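in:
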């Protein structure tokens, strides 16, 4: 499934060739597709390894961030995170960096894997609190660590407003886009965020949060790792049921202004997801539409 115009195709044969060339001791292990996100294609390798390959050249930097920072951040966090084991180099068959990580056993959080949504929300808040309190280890908001979700809402207004216009055309018959636009515009009038910059995961959606025995057990996919203001970190909480959302907010003691900015980030990113992936990734569009429904239910 191709999601981007400049995407580099990959299949099992290419992955085998990369392993044979750079890690021959792993080349004969069983290999199976393990899902694909908007940034990476993934294969499970044997029982204990995961191969991640960026879809496009501009996604490759995300793997480098994980390789550089995750070994240093892992000891500071209360739940397991991916452990990079091999930094793959480009070849003629696949001209981008790639990565092998240790497989983390767990399931995506969802109705079949979580018994107590309030407990899950509180667990996730504990992870966020530790991440945001972690030493920056010399990192600053620059270059690869300057993702837009760690900054102000205002620079994103042009493309998010355009995405909301597109949502009106595509799903306006079932979605109150007027209310979504009002929430976005209201957030633009709020005071700018202040305070120290912190580490941000930036994409704590259900597919990146793993559960075992009904409780949070790990957080994965740090490709969006950023240093900046924390508001956007809270946006994916609208992907979870209200019980998780309320427990998360209460545990972190998030005030009304922070919550309003987080909600604006949530709806802006969801609207852009509907617009950009409408023809290519229907499953992700469905996730974005559900997030918009949860936002509207909250304010309703």
């Amino acid at each position: 499934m191709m999601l981007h115009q400049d995407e580099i195709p990959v299949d099992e044969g290419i992955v085998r060739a990369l392993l044979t060339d750079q890690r021959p001791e792993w080349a004969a292990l069983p290999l199976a597709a393990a899902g694909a996100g908007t940034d990476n294609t993934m294969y499970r390798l044997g029982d204990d390894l995961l191969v991640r390959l960026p879809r496009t050249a501009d996604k490759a930097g995300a793997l480098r961030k994980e390789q550089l920072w995750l070994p240093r951040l892992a000891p500071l966090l209360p739940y397991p995170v991916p452990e990079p084991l091999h930094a793959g180099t480009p070849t003629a068959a696949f001209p981008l960096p790639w990565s092998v990580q240790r497989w983390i056993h767990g399931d995506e959080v969802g109705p079949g894997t979580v018994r107590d949504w309030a407990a899950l929300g509180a667990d996730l808040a504990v992870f966020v609190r530790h991440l945001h309190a972690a030493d920056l280890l010399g990192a600053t908001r620059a270059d690869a660590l300057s993702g837009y979700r760690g900054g102000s809402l205002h620079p994103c207004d042009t493309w998010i407003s355009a995405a909301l216009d597109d949502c009106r055309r595509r799903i306006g018959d079932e979605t109150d886009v007027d209310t979504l636009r009002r929430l976005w515009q209201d957030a633009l009038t709020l005071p700018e965020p202040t305070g120290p910059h912190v580490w941000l995961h930036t994409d704590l959606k259900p597919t990146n949060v793993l559960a075992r025995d009904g409780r949070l057990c790990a957080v994965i996919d740090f490709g969006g790792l950023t240093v900046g203001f924390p508001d956007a970190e809270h946006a994916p909480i609208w992907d979870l049921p209200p019980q998780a959302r309320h427990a998360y907010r209460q545990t972190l003691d998030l005030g009304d202004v922070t919550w309003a900015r987080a909600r604006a980030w949530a709806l802006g990113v969801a609207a852009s997801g509907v617009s950009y992936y409408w023809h290519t990734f229907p499953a992700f569009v469905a996730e974005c539409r559900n997030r918009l429904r949860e936002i509207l239910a909250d304010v309703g």
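note: The chain has eight helices and ten strands.
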